[in-house]
Design brief:
The complex is a heterodimer. Chain A is an alpha+beta fold. Chain A is built from three helices and five strands, in the order ββααβββα. In chain A, strands 2-1-5-3-4 form a five-stranded mixed beta sheet, with helices on one face. Classes of the chains: A alpha+beta, B alpha+beta. At the A-B interface, α2 and α3 of A face α8 and α9 of B.
Chain lengths: 108, 703
Amino acid sequence: MILALTFHIPGALREFTAGHSTVEIEQSGATLTDALTALWAIYPGVRDRVLTEQGQVRQHINIFIGNENIRYIGGLASPVAAGSEISIVPAVSGGWCERVGLISNMGR
Amino acid sequence: MIGQEIGHYRIVSKIGEGGMGVVYRAYDELLHRDVAVKVVNKDARLDPSASQNLLHEARASSSLAHPNICTIHDAGETDGELYIVMELVEGKSLYSMSAVVGLPAESVLRYGVQIASALARAHDRGIVHRDLKTANIVVTSEGLVKVLDFGLAKQIGSGIFEGPTRSFATVQDTAGVSGTLPYMAPEILRGEVADYRSDLWALGVVLYEAASGRLPFEGRTGFEISSAIMREIPIPLGPPVPPGLWAIIQRCLAKEPTQRYQRAGEVQAALEAVQSGAIVSADPAADLHPDVSPPKTTTLHSVRHAHVKKGDFLLLVGTTKGAFILRSNAQRRRWEVGGPYFHGHNVYAMAYDGRAGQHRIWVSTQSYWGTLLRSSDDFGKSWTNPQQAPIRFPSDTGVSLKNIWQITPGRAEEHNVIYCGVEPAALFESRDAGETWSLVRGLFDHPHRPRWMPGNGGLALHTIVLDPANKQRMYVAISSGGVYRTNDGGGTWTAQNQGIRCTFTPDKYPEFGQCVHKIAMHPDRPERLFLQNHWGLYRSDDCAENWTDIANGVPSDFGFAVVMHPKNPDCVYIVPVESDEFRCACDGRLRVYRTRNSGASWEPLMRGLPQKRAYETVLRDAMTADAFDPAGVYFGTRSGQLFGSCDEGRTWQKILEGLPSVVCVRSAVVEGAGGSLAMPKARPTNPSRTKSRSTNKSRRTNR
């Protein structure tokens, strides 16, 4: 299956996406890992900012598929439907609860 | 009015006048402070209910205690005149500051974060500004933003208070529409109710105006402006406005509220993210070839740089919010400050590498986005930003890098060797001048490692000491693991903690597990080491085989930093703190202690240091010395003060204050830098490095 996906890239990482705030990719596969692997293939600098060297999502980085935080829907194995919008968002910086609450409202 | 009293406010002078009222400087006789009093003209003809609403709103807004909101202290009515008492803010309006050409992106981000933060607080309290514009945002001389007139627009339109006025008046109609036309969101023009997302639209207009000096939606008439707001897309802002900032502005200016950021906190986070990324300007060519990544040239906007030249003296200061580079000369009296670099990142380790004619500054940066080792060959004007983190644990370890605590260039003759001590505790080594790194397995696979325990700051290998005479010997210190030594170049390691007391285990003298805070060695006496422990001050005279207590006459043997005098191997500096529980200078007196007899006795050094209520902490890497004669000693505190002595500690001066918490201070004399451009001299031949720099890494350069 070929999926068209849109990644929303936070400002801090656009240095590694040629300045693009959104990146659209088409890739085969159905999980977030597949989608991210396709993203790294184009923009390899993004990988180490989002994942640790052991392949886990960094503690204070959130990834959303649509409005869902992947931590609650299967992590990197979360299914990604065609047309999904995937957002990479830094989670907190002080005022933890407040910001987490805000992030959870980040819909589009 | 001058000299009269309104309530307990004595009117001192007139500050400004707007269409519907006058602003006075006044003195609060009750609380003895200067305030601003805004008196609404009787002619404003507010009906009684509107007056009551204004008072109500003003009182509601007075609950907004936030550093970026001009606080409303009081509101009331006297002799039929309505008055509002507020914080007296002195500064320039963002409107006047951003006229014509706009502000540097760095300033726009800095102010934008503060404005968004103010909005976030107000929105959390259910208060919408409704008339946010550059004219009611004031920046003080310290760079602090104050947003004026929260919540007042709905009742009266804040134009009554304005000093500067645009050619477009603040409007208010009977339907309750209020605001200033060029800042009004489309939904307001459609007659819908303004909510907090209308403030975010206005924030977008403010950011656009601040960045470019012009409004995003312009026109000769109100109709033209309204039409532009409803239908047109603003002219894109290209360099020097970084794409990240432009993207934020665009999202604030989405015509549909649902397409905008939904909370001011999101705008703040986005602005901070652009800030912390040191602000990117993409290579335009990359847009045409999106598979060519990353951009070759990126720019640091508006970060102040020190202009370093040959013979200059540098202090490298790492803080919990970025790095600073201070430049002086051999006199060490006047300082030029460069930075902050790596806005918002933890910078635990910095190092200067002047071997083999280079002058490279190394720095570790830690943020949400991970931990990186970076370097600059031009004193901070450009930094490497490697695509792949150069220091990483191999996959079979299952361990992820948390932080880099120490960067130690190798021995003078091994000019391609560098070591890094990291958290979780491990040692990394590079033999190609930092191009590639490998985990020192001999230490990582040590059978003690599973039993090392994290200290207060984490489980970190924070100190690396090289024996200059014996290339096979080096020492590391781990909190909490203790001192380890190798005699075979890192292949095997032994715990060297004999005589070091451990207060937090039943066995007071265990083989390992001590929480060592720092060790130091003088190159002329490599067999001798000094050690500051988590309780305990020690010396070893036999390559760390045995340790002897030398806390003779110090007010506390708890502390962090230990620094050798550069020339005298019997002279050591420490800064004791009171206790484990109270890690502050003893009795609130900031004193450096010095021994000149290898620890037989210690003397306090305090001239020029605060001796009252100075509850300061000097962390393990926040002190250093220089090699001048007489020697200089420098330290930074957790409260962000930087002190220095250029007479070996006899007298001290405050070099800087107001820094973020200082975690690292290093010094260097610049040899061989060429002129104010400060370009490096020829580096040691290393083709792989050169190649890699151009292909593997994105390099920040100055345009």
